[in-house]
Amino acid sequence: MAKSNYITRQGWNELDQELKFLWKEERPKVTQAVSDAAALGDRSENAEYIYGKRRLREIDRRVRFLTKRLEVLQIVDYNPKQEGKVFFGAWVELENEDGEIKQYRIVGCDEFAPEKNWISIDSPVARALIGKTLDDEVRVETPSGFITLYVNKIWYEK
């Protein structure tokens, strides 16, 4: 399944800040450390040199990824027309058949964070919720079978 290219403005800003930090602060520090370690002589047993080169490769890989990803991402801002319906960026309070209540925010795949209850727009739950309104019943296919959820509340951070 292909990843969607949607992201909240907050998520885009965080990725952009990470890219700037890596490129302007972290990479120059590590480059200098590698240069200093190389000046010490034998590189084959120089842990600082070996670690620094590895860290530079990690930074360069992440910089390439972020640069390419930020080019294709589409920022989705709040629109008052969304009120009352579940769309990208919405917070949704759901109740399952056992009466358990959970709140989720629908975000892009680059910013999903289970610890914050942020779910990806590409997840089965989010896809089933798109376009739903208050008090709608939603059937979601999960690996363990179908579950039914009820939409109790929908809101957006403006």
Structure description:
By secondary structure, the chain is an alpha/beta fold. It is built from three helices and seven strands. The strands form two sheets. A five-stranded mixed beta sheet has the order 5-4-3-7-6. Strand 6 and strand 7 form a beta hairpin. Helix 1 runs antiparallel to helix 2. The longest helix is centred in the N-terminal third of the chain and has 30 residues. It is elongated and about 70 Å long. The mean pLDDT is 92.
Task: List descriptors.
single chain; 158 residues; alpha/beta; five-stranded mixed sheet; two-stranded parallel sheet
| Extended strand count | 7
Radius of gyration: 22 Å
Mean pLDDT: 92
What form results from the Cα inertia axes?
A: elongated
Helix count, per DSSP? 3
- Provide the low-confidence segments as ranges: none
Listing every helix as H and every strand as E from the N terminus to the C terminus, the arrangement reads EHHEEEEHEE
Q: Characterize the largest beta sheet: strand count, sense, and whether it forms a barrel.
A: 5 strands, mixed
Give the amount of beta strand, in percent. 15-25%
- Please bin the fraction of helical residues: 25-40%
Strand-pairing-aware structural class:
alpha/beta
End-to-end gap: 30 Å
Query: For the largest beta sheet, what order do the strands appear in spatially?
Result: 5-4-3-7-6
Summarize the helices and strands and which ones pair or pack.
Layout: E1 6-7, H1 9-38, H2 47-72, E2 74-75, E3 90-96, E4 101-107, E5 118-120, H3 124-129, E6 137-142, E7 145-156
Parallel strand pairs: 1-2, 4-5
Antiparallel strand pairs: 3-4, 3-7, 6-7
Helix pairs in contact: 1-2
